[in-house]
Amino acid sequence: MRAKSKFLNQPLEFWANVRLISQKVGYTEKGTSKVKIPSMDEIQQIYINLCYSSNKLIENDICTSFGKLLAEYFQHRANFLNENVAPHLMDKKEARELFYKLKKELRPSCPLPMNKQSGSKKTPAFFTGIINMLIEASLGGYDCEYDPRELVSFTDEDFPVRSLSRRVDGAFPSMVNPIAIWEIKEYYYTTTFGSRVADSVYETLLDGYELNEIRRSLKRRVNHYFMVDDYNTWWTMGKSYLCRICDMLHMGLLTEALFGTEVVERIPQLVKEWLIQLGQTECN
């Protein structure tokens, strides 16, 4: 999932209204499993109930350009999540089958970590392994940080000038001056949507703000990816957070969000882009 250019570079007040309306109207269409599209009548009623002015959205019973843009964004967000995200999310069985299929085909040498469960739930981290194998197969021998245990840092003339606040799940080509970093969240054994899952979204939001500052100040192009999987966690229980991921993407805090099986087709394309960018960086 990449951002639709029409909704990029919107002012913060646009996103303030998106969040407020989403919170008050709700994220799921009643009686269905689909992401909700708020109507203008519902939006106007919210502002009346809160004693807020809706003049910037509706004036003389006609939608303003700002109101029309909000309505178009809610339509886009719902359509994309309903039609393109839900079908890609896997359950544990599907992820396991894809993991072992790729392992047999690709014969990887990259790390294939175990999950953090115990007992019978202790298995390979299927989604992380899938991603690592696909990246390795596409890199053609280039180095990559599959299991970083330190903070990402950026230097200028070999002097450290920036460091991210938290560790990420992967970086290319290294943890120093990477051109791509990513976060992976797979929750195949989660039965409730708890704070740990929610925090993963907010942590990625923090990374996005820091990377934007680095792009502006250091003039560095750093690609930032959020890759998530498990149908039950994200679709059945966590559609509100899928909406937040979509919002984060369009706020310019993510380069791209990838969901479940989408990584199979998309990662080879992304790695090709990284290699081109790496060649351009080395030439400079």
How does this structure look, described?
- This protein is globular.
- The strands form 3 sheets. Strands 5-6-7-8 form a 4-stranded mixed sheet, sandwiched between helices. It has a two-stranded antiparallel sheet with strand order 1-2.
- The chain contains 9 helices and 8 strands.
- The chain has 284 residues and is an alpha/beta fold.
- The protein folds into 2 domains: 7-88, no CATH class; 92-283, no CATH class.
- The protein is 49% helix and 12% strand.
Helix-strand layout with pairing:
Blueprint: H1 12-25, H2 40-49, E1 58-59, E2 62-63, H3 65-85, H4 92-106, H5 126-139, E3 153-156, E4 159-163, E5 170-172, E6 180-186, H6 195-218, E7 223-229, H7 231-237, H8 239-250, E8 256-259, H9 262-283
- Gyration radius, to the nearest Å? 20 Å
Strand content: 5-15%
Query: How does the major sheet shape up?
Result: 4 strands, mixed
> Distance between termini?
30 Å
Q: Number of DSSP helices? A: 9
The 3D shape can be described as: globular
SS class: alpha/beta
For the record, the count of structural domains works out to 2
Strand order of the largest sheet: 5-6-7-8
One letter per element, helices H and strands E, the order comes to HHEEHHHEEEEHEHHEH
What is the number of E strands? 8
The overall pLDDT, averaged over residues, is: 92
List keywords for this structure.
alpha/beta, 2 domains, 4-stranded mixed β-sheet, two-stranded antiparallel ribbon, 9 helices, 12% strand, globular
